């Protein structure tokens, strides 16, 4: 079987290419456009963003001549532009998801409700969908995957995002018969449950990133969501609410993931977790009950056992997304998807004391953060999934800082797409 690079080369040699539609021209989207423009057999032919100038700048930064960038919301003009080997900048998301020429759509918005809408529309238009929106995936991914399967298209997370990078290690270890004890990632910064856009603003400026996005990493929400996606894909689960969050180096990893009865701290195996001190890498902790296999691993300097670590020291986020696009297009396979349904649930926790009448804001905001629980635990508590929060969710009663917010503590002032899909998913599964 040809590698993706050779398949892309062959496609280009045949005078064709994969036509990608993108929603979101922020940091992730911009990088992806430039990366793909340097590839063979693929091009981002249309990109939507509320600020169309962001799209135009992204294309120009990728080396595309301004004369070849067509600004339109008209489907006929857009189709003509693609036929003329031009690219389209638009403010119309539905033009991306419905344009006949588009083969694969990528959601790079990071907004759960918008991501759910994009995936829903894309699948209805029988196109493959790549999600750079893990928040939407952990909330309604099982339903979207079932829809995609029924429609004959691929629903997938992205290579390069940490869940996708972890899944590659999992697939490798699982394929050759190792027992997989744990799956995890490094955390980039110390956990600060009180982080918000104001406290993150100064650092965000130095990094050229969004304060809200940075706060969502600092308060642990992104880590919870990412490991939630891995749990749903593998059937693994958090060993305790919020995971352990051990500290250590790569060489420490095999010894960190030992069960309590063997002198360690784990309650069981097949867990997802994060470790301070190994960022930006991802890892799989593996083991074998075969004497010869253990002897070979020791010979290969993989450690003294009984656990060993497979470690990847990088993930290239949206720069690797083209691999998932190509895999969906050529092989009709996902990089990562919620094969096991809801194994985990990232629930909503009050970041401060909240009173009746208060509105929640958003992930990385001032009011809430996420905490990963086992799905059955969250369900028993009637806990509110984090991906459902937005400016239309209002508190019905007071909740103390650090407490989990439940469905009965909130009300919607306007129902969103992701709420409707989650209701359908809850009934379906």
Automatic annotation (TrEMBL):
Domain of life assignment: Bacteria
UniProt cross-references to InterPro entries, sorted A to Z: Asp/hSer_DH_NAD-bd, DRL_cat, NAD(P)-bd_dom_sf
Pfam families: DRL_cat, NAD_binding_3
Domain Oxidoreductase DRL-like catalytic: from-to ranges: 160-321
GO molecular function term, any single one: oxidoreductase activity
Residues annotated as domain Aspartate/homoserine dehydrogenase NAD-binding: 24-152
Protein name stated in the entry: NAD(P)-dependent oxidoreductase
Source species of the chain: Virgibacillus necropolis
